[in-house]
Amino acid sequence: MVSPDHPRLHTTSPMAKPSVPRNKSSFCLSDSLLFIGGAFFALVLVWSLWSFLTPTTDPSPNLGPLGDSQSKSASGADWLNCGEDSAETTFYDEPELSYSIGKPLENWDEKRKEWLKQHPSFAAGARDRVLLLSGSQPSPCKNPIGDHLLLRFFKNKVDYCRIHGCDVFYNNALLHPKMGSYWAKLPVVRAAMVAHPEAEWIWWVDSDALFTDMEFKLPLERYKDHNLVVHGWAHLIYDDKSWTGLNAGVFLIRNCQWSMDLMEVWASMGPQTPEYKRWGQILRSTFKDKLFPESDDQTGLIYLLYKEKEKWGEKIYLEGEYYFEGYWHEIIGTMDNITERYREMEREEGTLRRRHAEIESEQYGAYRTRCYLKEAGNGRGSWRRPFVTHFTGCQPCSGDHNQMYAGGSCWDGMRRALNFADNQVLRKFGFVHRDRLDSSLSPLPFDFPAAD
Ligand SMILES: *[C@@H]1O[C@H](CO)[C@@H](O)[C@H](O)[C@H]1NC(C)=O
């Protein structure tokens, strides 16, 4: 959940070099038409779905939370009448099934598959379905503005998922009493995998990380042969033996048996085991730049990659091509220029500044990506908005940020990043934060920023 009180310095691999955007208007004219055509088609589709879903007559009264009509639409089952039992049993009916770390779950792939077969209404889109998880501590934050910051970070995740169609589970209880701080996410991921067999991917995003490109979509196709995606760099793990070779604050893990097995092995280095102390020593002696003696989740994962590469490495994708998760200190200073770059694009091209419904955001985002961001690059040195900005070492809740950051730079950085992200959302609601740090709003003029 919360990162340890140590900076996780990122050494980002050099990404595509920055370059000047060319005028793409002519190039994208046909795209523009396609886009309008696509939008029209989508409209027709939504319209017909809408007329299909709108009940013309509904004689049945609402039977409360599990009312008949609701249960039908949610699962395709029509058995949820009082006194009737479900026809088929699922893995949930096995008394020995556990949601907890330390109780290995077997044949998960078959169980999940069987469940999906019994719930065919979830078949469509099952391959790409994502459940986003995040969480924070069970008690109030010590930092007086901590809970407010966490609320804004959480709102940001809800915004992103509303636009891109992922589900969100936010947890603020310790699912395993001994697995606190950075280990607390593992039990949450484990339980969520069982609770959400319809989700193919579980996406953990630390509470102090936020989406700063609301248009960017996870390139899931790229990960089709992998089960775990983390922001990382092979040379830092295998050559430099650095504990910052990857960042475990954001990861995407496939809901499958392989992941169940990995979680068990990974968690076996955690504070709930009698081996915890010994693991601290092993990790520190293997990764010399590790700053503190306790075994931590991030170094543990790097250890697995380093020591058992044949076993795990093949299915772990080290994503270094874009900011799957980016170090805030490297990013904050680039935000003003990026904002200006995007304004230029929008002054140049009417489609990009055209008002539209929030639900159409993905299409407009894809249009910008296709026509205007091809040469923007990704990650360090890029003028594309960074996908995820992670306030590593800032500790918004406790307030005990790392001493290497000057007082205020963490909080100012967060406010800037939150406003930067929020402006992308609020635009669809007709408003904008004019000030980078201030949370006040102004109405957005028509055709902004053409005549700004
Ligand atoms: C922002 O753009 C200005 C003008 O092009 C440039 O001088 C400056 O170095 C850029 N700043 C960053 C952080 O990239």
UniProtKB/TrEMBL annotation:
GO CC annotation: endosome; Golgi membrane; trans-Golgi network
The keyword Transmembrane is assigned to this record: yes
Main subcellular localisation: Golgi
Region feature (Disordered): 1-23
Membrane topology label: Single-pass type II membrane protein
Single GO molecular function: galactosyltransferase activity
Coiled-coil intervals: 335-362
Transmembrane segments: 32-53
Keywords recorded for this protein, A-Z: Coiled coil, Glycoprotein, Glycosyltransferase, Golgi apparatus, Membrane, Signal-anchor, Transferase, Transmembrane, Transmembrane helix
InterPro entries per UniProt: Glyco_trans_34
Keyword set includes Membrane: yes
Localization per Swiss-Prot or TrEMBL: Golgi apparatus membrane
Family listed: Belongs to the glycosyltransferase 34 family.
Protein name per Swiss-Prot or TrEMBL: Uncharacterized protein
Organism: Carya illinoinensis (Pecan)
